Amino acid sequence: MSSRNTLSSARHIVVEGPIGVGKTSLTRRLADYLGGQALLDQPEANPFLNRFYQDQQRFALATQLAFLFQRVEHLRDLPQADLLTRPVVADYLLEKDALFARLTLSDDEYGLYRKVHDMLAPPQGRAPSLVIYLQATPETLIARVRKRGVEIERSIGDAYLTILAESYTRFFHNYDAAPVMVVNSENINFVDRDDDFQLLVTRIEAMRGHREYFNRGE
Fold first, then answer.
1. Which of 59, 120, 163, 216 is deepest in the core (most CB within 10 A)?
2. Does residue 51 fall inside a structural domain?
3. C-alpha gyration radius of the chain
4. Which strand (E) or helix (H) includes residue 60?
């Protein structure tokens, strides 16, 4: 990826990270900054999600397939011609969809999920232009999830959030389908502090390699 105009030249940007890391907030702000479209996951539209958090074993497959269909439909509604005129910033990466499936499904269910996924997923050539992966410690994620008090998240266990954060780390350690900016979100607030947001934008614009890291200590 070129070191110049990295962000402004990207047409399909993905902001990713575990629950509570701030990916949806950053997605909205980046889309507004770029004059683009925010493509957001819609957990409220998944009729199985609340029941999944109450009984993961029973509702994991239905929940996972509902999200898969939703995400594939969103991506298929993005003709390449539209991306040339207006960038898209999404708060999910379809390739990461299997991460949740592997965590929650039995082997037989996962095999079925993979067959459906492979039939529906867009071609590999449609990888995003840039992925921004937000990291935080499990302790920080747990505190943020509890603080924001979203009703559907009240029954998420601390152990699940910890395993999820670790799974994200492993996934993005091996991910190389698109350039990745790995961001430690512990000491940066993209929503409430304009200077923090501008600092991130500057760092992305200066990217020179396929994978770079941004860690702002305090």
1. 59
2. yes
3. 17
4. helix 56-76
- Which CATH number do you get for residue 208? 3.40.50.300
Asked if 7 and 82 count as a contact pair (C-beta separation under 8 A), the reply is no
Q: How many CA atoms lie within 13 A of 5 on its CB side?
A: 4
pLDDT tens digit sequence for 67-84: 999 999 888 776 554 556
Domain that holds residue 130: 6-215
**Number of structural domains in the chain:** 1
pLDDT tens digit string along 173-187?
999 999 999 999 988
Q: Which residues of 134-161 are buried (b: 16+ CB within 10 A; e: fewer)?
A: bbbebeebbebbeeeeeeebeebeeebb
Degrees (nearest 5) of the Cα angle 80, 86, 91?
Answer: 85
Long-range contacts at 120-126 (CB < 8 A, ≥ 24 apart): 120/68, 120/69, 120/72, 121/72, 121/94, 122/72, 122/75, 122/76, 122/94, 124/177, 126/12, 126/75
CA 162 from centroid of its chain's CA atoms: 17
The pLDDT, as a whole number, for residue 84 is 60
Q: What distance in Å separates the CA atoms of residue 197 and residue 104, rounded to the nearest whole number? A: 34
86 domain-assigned? yes
1, part of any domain: no
Determine, yes or no, domain membership for 20.
yes
